[in-house]
Every structure is written in structure tokens, then in C-alpha cells.
Amino acid sequence: MRYAETTTVSEDRSRAEIERNLKRYGATGFMYGWSGTDAMIGFVVRSRQIKLVVPLPDKNADEFRYTPVQRFVRSPKQQQDSYDQAVRQRWRALALYVKATLEAIEVGILTFDDAFLAYTALPGGATVGQWMQPQIEAAYATGRMPPLLPMLGE
Known about the structure:
Elements lengths: L10 H14 L4 E7 L2 E8 L2 E8 L6 H4 L10 H31 L5 H5 L11 H15 L12
Antiparallel strand pairs: 1-2, 2-3
Helix pairs in contact: 1-3
């Protein structure tokens, strides 16, 4: 069973909850948006710009087109309702993640940078995680760390 898979809490209420929690924990800015199959929230805390991208489900996926057990084709309204439920679930999960992470920072389990480092936005718009993942994969594949000063070669 997925967290909040039967939630009736709207996307709007989940976003508002995220915003309230961010304010409570000291955020000085908040925004959200969507494009295609991704939703995104961004916020500023402690002079750090954080970007969390939430992949939304594919509206045409079989999980929405067919019933789960007998694989009957759902009506267009049932497909839309099923898709909307999955989107609400993702927003509830994001709200839980943000609140739990901020509380873990508040009580000293994590530092802000440790908790949100991968989601810290860099000047070019990518996050630290997006920037680092290819380098980490290369290091594991080769067993070697990238050079400290790449412009000087090995």
C-alpha cells in the first residue's frame, strides 16, 4: 500500500501545507509550477535555493486505462479519476517528505545542507544531484575519482 493512495486532499491543499511548513521553518521564498509530466516546488531557506521535481504519472499509462484486477477498460471519467488520485497521492507524499525533513533538521538529526544538498539549485539551473550523478556513476564504473583539477589532466 502506498502512502496516501486513497487521499481526498487536493493538490492545492497539499501545496498550501508545504508552503505553511516552509514558512514555519524559515523559508523566505516559495514557488511551484508544472511542465508536461513534472511538477516542481522551489524555495529559499538559509540563502539556499532548493528545487524539488515531482515526476507526475503518465496520464495514458495502463494503470489508469485498466482496472487493477480484471484488466477491464475504464471509462474516460474513471481514467481521469484514477489519474487525479495518483497526482493527489504524489503531492501528499511530497508534503510529508518536506515536513519530515524540516523537522529532522530542526531537532538536529540532519543539517540543512545534508538534507537538501542534492536539491540545491546551481547557477545554471541544474541541481547538485543532477550535476553530480554522472560523476558518481563514472567513479563507480572506473573505480577512480575524477581529477581534482580536470583542466590540468592526470
